[in-house]
Amino acid sequence: MSFDGLFTHAMVTELQGLLVGGRIAKIHQPYPQEVVLVIRSNGKNYPLLLSAHPTFARAQITNIPYANPTTPPAFAMMLRKHLEGAKVEKIEQVENDRIIKLSVLTHDELGDLEEVVLILEMMGRHSNLFLVNQKTNKIIELIKHVSADQNRVRSLYPGAQYIAPPKQDVINPYTSLQGLANFILDIPDQKDLAKAIQGHFQGFAFDSALELATVVHEPGDAMAHAQNWLANFSTPAPQLIDLAANNKVVFAPFKWLTLPGTVREFATLGEMLDVYFADRAERDRVQQQAGNVIRVVRNEIKKNKTKLKKLEQTLDESAHADEFKVKGELLTTYLYQVERGMTEITLPNYYEEEKPLKIPLSNQIGPSQNAQKYFTKYNKLKKAVAYVDEQIALTQHELDYLENIMAQIEIASPKDINEIRMELTAEGYIRNKAKNKKARLQISQPEKFYATDGTLIEVGKNNLQNDKLSLKTAARNDIWLHVQKMAGSHVIIHDSNPSEQTLLEGATLAAYFSKARESANVPVDYLPAKLLRKPNGSKPGYVIFEGQSTMYITPDAQLIEQLRHNKA
Asked: So what family is this one in (predicted)?
């Protein structure tokens, strides 16, 4: 389903039970439009994600790790000033709308009690997060500043009065279901009934309205079915449903009739959303973090492809160098027939049984200079072959490296992007803004997984991690794995003699964290790490080896999640 007003009702119910009465211990803003409040409640820390993202706006308890920027954004600093140490008094939904209010009690700079409220509006591209003074109703700060030209209905800047979004003429279903009985009697078609429900009641996305339209047509009392269905949002039983019909995964707060498929159940809505959004939101965050990196790499790839094409054209011309030599020799032999001012001449080619050969001439130079011009071009092309071959090899190597970087960005998490940026800066692709200073390469740890038998398996997510993992961290007899002849992560099984199942799981990680993630029967090479060699002067992440074995793997996302959450 969608994160509509009904799902917001379920989420607020969950957050109320976990967070009300707790204190805000830490505040982070890892991404431009998302804030994480670490709330200490009942002896446990709960990371509350408040997202004003235009596509993934939501509120939830999240356990997905994140990396904070070096310098906290201004919005995070303002939240820390007003909210750190504050007690969460209330978490409430505005009627049945996609608006959540988190009210806190804190002290101002003079030590007086101060009531402030965080208001999350989940309205697509108009989503926003406000910090508002409860007493004056003035906006202290907001995560997205919006100019008057962009929004003439409300003032969206610090110091302005907070005005709620324009209210629609719809009924809160938790207040009244007036009109539903008539709809059920008058509209037999379920899709038409769903449209009527969506237009009449507050907080319904179409998929929710269609589910209610289906529920009320079940045998029995239709209005009782509707009341019970709405009550289920207060006692959710979260689940993800794999829809076999279109190979799509959707979420629901409890069992839905309109979503038949394979069900995965979760203890909380937050745990369910972590799995649902793990890849979707992560990809978007990576795109945001890596904007300039992607642009640089794409430009370099385009430049090298153009260079490679020109070099191959030169090489192709060099293959016909002998034609210039023949023309030069024929002109020298029949020099007496060539007159100044001619633009072409046809001479018998004694290399091909006197077959006539048309030879273009320059009318600006004499006969012997025309012959010499062909010899010069012949010699130039012959000398160019060795140079062009070398340049093609270097350009192809450069292209392979850049395409490998692009593949790493595709599988990277947001925290990996900074290391990719540092690597590209060190390699000279990105200008180092700090003059006369080399980019400091602070390498983070590879991602850790545990095989079914508890064996540690580490996966490098960028070239810096790959080099460190494969050439420094790994023991000589640890098993190294990599997808064959394709961009991908270095994987180390920290065992000299892993079981067949552990080897299979390591190969699955290598195939999954590669450019072949969506493929089947992916070849994965493996061998002891001691057989790896890194040529002098080679790019980060590049190694050579021999004596490898190969196995064929089809990547399995569910197995990856299982290995990620296994314990040592």
From this structure: Belongs to the NEMF family.
Exposed/middle/buried for 278, CB within 10 Å: 0-12, 13-18, 19+? middle
User: Measured between alpha carbons, how far is 377 from 42 in angstroms, rounded to an integer?
Assistant: 84
Position 64 scores a pLDDT of 85
Extract the tokens encoding 458.
Answer: 């580490």
Asked whether the predicted pLDDT for residue 436 surpasses 70, the reply is no
Q: Say how far apart CA 149 and CA 20 lie, in whole Å.
A: 38
Q: Quick one: pLDDT band at residue 442, thresholds 50, 70, 90?
A: low
Q: In a 3-state reduction of DSSP, which class is residue 142?
A: strand
C-alpha pair distances (Å), 271 with each of 47, 50, 56, 318: 12, 15, 16, 63
Backbone angles phi and psi of 237, in degrees to 5: -130, 80
Tokens of 215: 């529920």
* Amino acid in the structure at residue 234: S
Q: Kindly state the tokens that stand for 330.
A: 């024929």
Tokens, residue 322? 């002998």
CB 529 within 8 A of CB 460: no
Query: How high is the pLDDT of residue 475?
Result: 95
Residue 530 DSSP label: G
pLDDT at residue 387 in the model: 84
CB 532 within 8 A of CB 471: yes
Question: Over the stretch 98-150, which tens digit does the pLDDT of each residue have?
Answer: 999 999 998 777 777 889 999 999 998 899 999 999 999 999 999 998 876 66
Residue closest to 483 by CA, chosen among 435, 439, 537, 519: 519
Calculate the CA 100 to chain-centre distance: 27
- Between CA 429 and CA 427 the distance in angstroms is 6
* Strand-pair partners of 35: 50
Strand, coil or helix: what is 99? strand
Strand spans (E) along 315-470: 344-349, 355-360, 447-450, 456-459
Distance CA 20, CA 295 (A): 44
What letter would DSSP give residue 547? S
C-alpha span between 132 and 136 (Å, rounded) = 8
Pairing between β-strand 522-528 and β-strand 549-553 as defined by DSSP bridges: antiparallel
Angle between helices 367-411 and 291-318 in degrees, nearest 10: 150
Exposed, middle or buried, 275 (CB in 10 Å: 0-12/13-18/19+)? middle
Reference 517, options 544, 489, 495; nearest CA is 489
Q: Is the pLDDT of residue 521 over 60?
A: yes
Report whether pLDDT(449) > 70.
yes
Give the confidence band of 427 by pLDDT, cuts at 50, 70, 90: confident
Q: State the DSSP code for 290.
A: T
The H or E element spanning position 566 is none
If one counts every other C-beta atom within 10 angstroms of the C-beta of residue 435, the result is: 6
